[in-house]
Amino acid sequence: MPVAPAVVRARIFRFDPETDQGPRYDTIEIPYQPHMRVLDVLDQAVDSCGLGVGYRYFCGIKRCGMCGVSVNGKPVLACWEAASAEMTIEPLPKLPVIRDLAVDRTIFEGATVGLHPVLERHEPYEGFPEPLTHVEMHDAFKLMNCIECYVCSTSCPAVPDQGPHEFKGRDFVGPGTLVQIAKAALHPRDGRDRSGELELASLDNCMSCGRCEEVCPNSIPILSGAIAPLRARATKGPRGLARLPMEFSENVRANGNVNSAALFLRTRGWLRTLASAPMLIRMFFHRKTRLFPRFSAEARRSIDAVFSITSSGERK
């Protein structure tokens, strides 16, 4: 059993954009209490030490998702993270500071709302009570523990440093928003084609590094339970870039490598492919692509090997 510290020493980030030239840190030392959390340290900083530090919370029991802070460089929920002997408490990264530890979550919340993460029925409502089996709800149900704290999104290396300002097809919206979309998309009664929203979310910017799952306070399987199923839906969608992953896979299967001309034609159509002809020609002369399929025995062996590898991966 680890020995509990006698004293907690905390460096607390302080900054008011309206009055301060730059941030500073105030340091406090308080007696350690059994089961002390970071939120308890902040409460004592105000009540016992007289610091007028600004921070946000509501429930205190890991339900509201409002108390996110960064402790020793790791985004956490203040109400749930255990206090340690030495702590540096800072605001969540990638978000504008309102004051001290309170941040403006509008960037992530706006991206979430803008991508329509609600159930959309295409079949008539059968009436209440509506029968839904455990098997039908299993995939969506495990995402219901998300409390929209956006701790995962602020820790994601694929999210821009200032958040997803240009989320419509340019900036990656982050795993927190994708979980909200997946909750609706995986519901057995949802009939909406979400490939368009997933294009706007820049889903392919996810690097599958797993950082989001490491920091999630509710241990949600974000990669396997939300992002992977959304990728499967994106590849089957009818809209532009949503077809690219599937066409890329089929292109490699058919050619043993990437045939850019065929890939452009399948995903962009004749007119846009012709407009891209100068780029394709430059790629060809720089040996970055092939314009025509290969028919040699070596090419056939390469194609067979790629097909075997991809088929094995899909079975797993």
From TrEMBL:
Belongs to the succinate dehydrogenase/fumarate reductase iron-sulfur protein family. Its cofactor is [4Fe-4S] cluster; [3Fe-4S] cluster; [2Fe-2S] cluster. NCBIfam families: dhsB. One of its GO terms (biological process) is tricarboxylic acid cycle. This is Succinate dehydrogenase iron-sulfur subunit. Residues 196-226 form the 4Fe-4S ferredoxin-type domain. Its EC number is 1.3.5.1. It is an enzyme of class 1 (oxidoreductase). It comes from Cupriavidus oxalaticus. Pathway: Carbohydrate metabolism; tricarboxylic acid cycle; fumarate from succinate (bacterial route): step 1/1. It comes from the Bacteria. Keywords: 2Fe-2S, 3Fe-4S, 4Fe-4S, Iron, Iron-sulfur, Metal-binding, Oxidoreductase, Tricarboxylic acid cycle. GO terms for molecular function: 2 iron, 2 sulfur cluster binding; 3 iron, 4 sulfur cluster binding; 4 iron, 4 sulfur cluster binding; electron transfer activity; metal ion binding; succinate dehydrogenase (quinone) activity.
